[in-house]
Specification:
Layout: H1 19-38, H2 41-58, H3 69-95, H4 114-122, H5 125-136, H6 141-148, H7 152-175
Helix pairs in contact: 1-2, 1-3, 2-3, 3-6, 4-7, 5-7, 6-7
């Protein structure tokens, strides 16, 4: 009788980057993503700072075998932003603020036409987020899924629907 051996997946031997290397390589993407979500430069700067502070404390948990530092950091950025939005909503409710402070409207991405910017603004936050991750930041489906906490298939489905809605809105604007 022959012994059957089961091949185990090999762990990658890729060198684990230092936190400083990962932070430097991803700072622009993380800030851009948070600026897109917050639509306010000052808030995005604060959220970026909080993201890297959390990431530094959790760096020992980062496993390069499971993914790229960029996706890991964008996941922390997303969680940080969602926590901030929830806290902000509670604060507003507590203080019963009637008027929302004026926010600077930052462009979604450089070089977009006003019609495309307007159409993007009409999409839901979730639709804009999946477009930002997959199209603007060029994350693959697996990485975007890790950031959003969903499967790559769900990312693909959301992206397809978001792009379809975007096309409908741009086409409707062109007909006006």
């Amino acid at each position: 009788m022959h012994a059957v051996t089961i091949d185990r997946p090999q762990r990658t031997t890729e060198r684990r980057p230092t936190f400083a290397e990962a932070a430097e390589a991803t700072l622009d993407d993380v800030f851009g993503y948070l600026l897109y979500l917050a639509r306010d430069r000052e808030t995005a700067e604060d959220l970026t700072s909080a993201t890297y502070e959390k990431a530094l404390r959790q760096w020992h948990r980062f496993d390069p075998v499971r993914g790229h530092p960029r996706a890991w950091l964008l996941g922390i950025a997303r969680t940080t932003a969602l926590d901030w939005f929830r806290a902000e909503k509670r604060r507003r409710r507590r203080e019963e603020i009637a008027a929302v402070p004026e926010r600077i409207e930052e462009p979604f991405a450089e070089g977009l036409s006003p019609a495309l910017e307007a159409a993007l603004a009409e999409l839901s936050a979730g639709e804009r987020e999946v477009i930002a991750l997959r199209v603007v930041l060029d994350l693959d489906g697996d990485a975007a899924g890790r950031v959003l906490g969903i499967s790559a298939t769900a990312v693909s489905t959301r992206l397809s629907r978001a792009l379809q809605r975007l096309e409908e809105k741009v086409t409707a604007d062109d007909l006006r």
